[in-house]
Amino acid sequence: MKQTGAPHQITELIANLSEMVRLRVLRLLEAEELAVGEVAKVLQLPQSTVSRHLRLLAEGGWLVRRSEGTATLYQMIADELSIEARALWVTIRDQLGASAELEEDDRRLRAVLADRRLDSEAFFGRVAGQWDELRNSLFGEEFTTRALLSLLPRGWVVADLGCGTGNASEIMAPYAERVIAIDHSGPMLEAARKRLGDVPNVSFFEGRLERLPLDDDSVDAAVCVLVMHHIPDIAPALCELRRVLRADRNGGVALIVDMCAHDRVDYRHSMGHQHLGFSEGEIRSLALSAGFSAVDWWELPSDPAGKGPGLFAAALRLGATGDSG
Q1: pLDDT at 133
Q2: Interatomic CA distance for residues 223 and 254, integer angstroms
Q3: What are the tens digits of pLDDT across the range 160-190?
């Protein structure tokens, strides 16, 4: 990258940064040196498209590149930019601020770097690197998740709210005393019945989260997996969760898994989403207003291959100690 010499014309510099995707690229490469494929994973764009943008930015003096084996790595080193380019980049970067799209880039970047660390460990420790593959070949890929579910108290009654085709109910049934699968869609419930018809401790009910067909204090735990973003007003749904949960026997917990706040407006039209995800503050405030005493929140690690927004898990508790504020 040139530090001296004839300065770029400001119009050429501005032209280099005229597309948002290039600004996202520079943000990433200012933070980390990345290969073309890694940038493509983070941006969720075809590698050919990413290569074109990287080539343009490199030719414009914004990036340095080097080869490592068969890979080409790119990085932006702000201190090595021309004075004009550095001033322009600092101004634009400060104006970018925070957005759901950039937050998703950051989540996927962390996942890509985590994958890289795993690859490195596999390279330097052949046996250790093959251990997961060996275990999966012997026992399958799901045994760890299913084994961890044995931590559920055996006597719990669990409600699977918005159960869909019964995926969560199927996983929980071997570990709970009873699973109550509820969905407002008749066809979805029928699919769940076909899937779980032979499982004796799963029962099915049609109903909405805003008006659950359950008695007060009747379940120990409830799960809502990718359901809340379909509900126009989630405050009544959270009040219903509070109503049906009982706090005795160390129960009284609702697990919500849903999308972090994002800006994919097309989801409203293409998939009927009522909310573009949720922020931690929004879930926490509504849960406490509904009568829950504590809220624990985790952003789930992003899968670089996943095309959707980032996900969170929130545990809403009754009469429990936790991070309530």
Answers
A1: 66
A2: 6
A3: 999 999 999 999 999 999 999 999 999 899 9
Share of the chain above pLDDT 70, in %: 89
pTM: 0.65
| Residue closest to 155 by CA, chosen among 181, 139, 131, 177 | 177
Longest dimension (CA), the chain: 78
Q: Is the per-residue pLDDT at 300 higher than 70?
A: yes
Nearest residue to 259 (alpha-carbon basis) of 229, 215, 223: 229
CA distances, 320 to each of 142, 154, 220, 286 (Å): 30, 20, 13, 17
Q: What domains are defined for the chain?
A: 10-127 (1.10.10.10), 142-317 (3.40.50.150)
Angle formed at CA 272 by CA 266 and CA 275, multiple of 5 degrees: 75
d(CA 124, CA 137): 22
253, 320 contact by CB (below 8 A) = yes
Model confidence pLDDT, tens digit, residues 113-166: 887 766 655 444 444 445 566 667 777 777 777 787 887 888 899 999 999 999
Q: How far apart (Å, rounded) are the C-alpha atoms in residues 185 and 192?
A: 11
User: What is the C-alpha to C-alpha distance for residues 249 and 153, in angstroms, rounded to an integer?
Assistant: 9
Whether the CA torsion 121, 125, 126, 128 is positive or negative: it is: negative
Q: Is 224 exposed, middle or buried (0-12, 13-18, 19+ CB in 10 A)?
A: buried
Sheet holding 34-35, edge to edge: 34-35, 71-75, 64-68
- Residue-wise pLDDT for 306-316, tens only, equals 788 999 999 99
- At 66 the three-state DSSP class reads strand
Q: Name the phi and psi angles at 58, rounded to 5.
A: -65, -45
Residues 6+ apart with CB under 8 A from 145: 171
CB atoms within 10 A of CB 295: 22
The structure tokens listed for 293 are 């005493």
